[in-house]
Write a structure and sequence with these properties.
With 496 residues, the chain is α+β, with helices and mostly antiparallel strands. It has 17 helices and 7 strands. The protein has a 7-stranded antiparallel beta sheet. α3 (110-134) runs antiparallel to α7 (195-218) and α3 crosses α8. The radius of gyration is 26 Å and the shape is elongated.
Length: 496
């Protein structure tokens, strides 16, 4: 069995980003947070949801009819043939777009497209095929049910996409419903003989989540159709090779008209048109919200199996389906509320993501300031698990320079900063060269009571695009920044 499923996930943070325009957005795509898309037009409201609902419907129906097809033909041959069909369909539609003048922007390099293709169209499919051959369908369904959560987690770390508490509640309810439905499959097993298969399916889930998050920034510079077509064509030779040596044995069964109808449905819709529809939803709704709707897949599969195969529907499945629908309604409502709030506050958004951290010190503001102005402050505030190698540190003043290397384990991170707006109660250090595209860090000390000072760390930053940006996001995700400044607050309190 080959199931086409997707992932989801989300979290709350102090990051925010600003609108990015795209020649493919209509008319503008606001990349605020996953649940803060302004109501600018239908593309940011109902069309993404309708597109994702269509994907869930296509994939949900695909599962039971593929069970029928795979009873008669080798799984690798089936997959190769349907991907040939989908590649032809997507390539034809993408070519039509290009003839109409719709082309990728200069930021969309071939390398980025190849990486996406290897993640989603090659690695995901390959691991999933290996997994379903080595574990039970019940285990597969249960592991795939975690895909939305993996997506939300990766979107939080790498894209700063966040969900409000209400949206998290909806996501949790939908996930619970999905798990209830998945557990109704009687062949769920924890036996060690399924370990390899379970790990392969888990790898497939993580691959899809990674591909979804990786594609999100790309979709501001390339149409969903052209990205899907490129990925399908690039990965196609690998799937044809996977089935090598199996085609001859499959020829007798490929004489069946009903089998070809199944293959054509799966190729044209499931691995064909569903992919650009999915990418459209990811671009406009965000990775986390897009993946959440895929919790509908097992529910649709149940209904399709009832209609096509006469399989009975159990009470737990009805309960799980109700939870899935309720969770998705809550998430949709949360996104609408957040979008309305984003419209009223968008003018106050800065031009780059922001991180804020505050803590208090039981000391006079002058003592706190003096501590931060001392020559060895860089090494003093460095957490014990990091190695700080200072190359140059001029006395803190307007235009003074600091150059250093942070060793994160075996990885050196070279940094050069210049200081500005220096006063007894604040100063700013701006990265001149380093891993970030931009980094402006303002330190402010404010007396809030006698012998009690508040320290406010305010950082405005941005990442590079592509692999360079992936590197900086790995080094400085929000959890790492929170941990870093929490340790610095402990050090400050101990020394002042």
């Amino acid at each position: 069995m080959i199931a086409d499923t997707q992932p989801q996930l989300a979290v709350a943070t102090h990051f925010r980003t600003v609108p990015l325009s795209s020649p493919y957005s209509s008319p503008a795509i606001s990349q605020v947070t996953a649940d803060q898309q302004p109501h600018r037009d239908l593309a940011t409201t109902w069309w993404p949801d309708a597109s994702l609902l269509g994907v869930a419907l296509i994939w949900g129906v695909n599962i039971p009819i593929m069970k029928i097809g795979l009873e008669h033909v080798d799984v690798y041959v089936f997959n190769a043939i349907r991907l040939i069909i989908s590649s032809i369909v997507l390539a034809a539609l993408a070519l039509r777009e290009r003839q109409q003048g719709i082309r990728p922007t200069a930021s969309i390099t071939r390398r980025r497209i190849i990486v996406y293709a290897m993640i989603v169209s090659a690695t995901y499919q390959f691991l999933f095929l290996l997994g379903i051959a080595r574990t039970t369908s019940g285990n597969t369904a249960l592991i795939i049910a975690t895909v939305p959560m993996w997506t939300a987690l990766l979107a939080r770390i790498f894209l700063s996409e966040t969900l409000r508490r209400l949206a998290w509640t909806g996501l949790t309810i939908a996930l619970a419903g999905t798990i209830i439905v998945a557990l109704q499959n009687r062949n769920v097993s924890a036996g060690g003989e399924h370990l390899v298969g379970n790990l392969c399916v888990l790898g497939a889930a993580l691959s899809w989540a990674a591909g979804t998050v990786y594609s999100r920034p790309m979709l501001h510079g390339i149409s969903p159709m052209q990205l899907s077509a490129s990925a399908a064509v690039i990965a196609l030779p690998l799937h044809v090779l996977f089935a090598a040596g199996r085609y001859a044995d499959a020829m007798p069964t490929l004489q069946s008209v009903n089998l070809w109808l199944i293959i054509v449905y799966s190729g044209v819709l499931s691995t064909g048109l569903a992919l650009p529809m999915w990418n459209f939803g990811v671009r406009h709704a965000g990775a986390a919200h897009a993946s959440a709707i895929q919790n509908l897949i097992p529910l649709i599969a149940i209904v399709a199996a009832w209609l096509s195969r006469g399989e009975s529907v159990t009470t737990p499945q009805l309960i799980g389906g109700t939870l899935i629908l309720s969770g998705l309604v809550i998430m949709r409502w949360s996104r609408q509320r957040a979008a309305a709030i984003a419209l009223t506050t968008s003018e106050r958004d800065t031009s780059m993501p922001v991180f804020d951290f505050r803590f208090t010190v039981d000391a006079d503001v002058s003592d706190v300031s003096e501590f931060h102005f001392q020559p060895g402050i860089l090494k003093t505030l460095t957490p014990p698990f990091l190695i700080m190698q200072v190359h140059r540190f001029e006395p803190l003043a307007e235009g003074s320079i600091a150059e250093f290397t942070m060793w994160m384990g075996p990885i050196p991170v070279r940094w050069k900063a210049v200081h500005s707006h220096v006063s007894p109660t604040s100063f700013t250090d701006t990265q001149v060269s380093g891993p970030m595209k931009s980094w402006v860090h303002t330190h402010t000390f404010r007396e809030i009571a006698p012998n009690r000072t508040e320290v406010h760390e305010h950082i405005e930053f941005s990442h590079y695009s592509g692999w360079r940006g992936l590197w900086s996001r790995l080094l400085f995700p929000r959890p790492a920044l929170v941990m870093l400044f929490t340790i610095r607050s402990w050090i400050t309190r101990r020394h002042v």
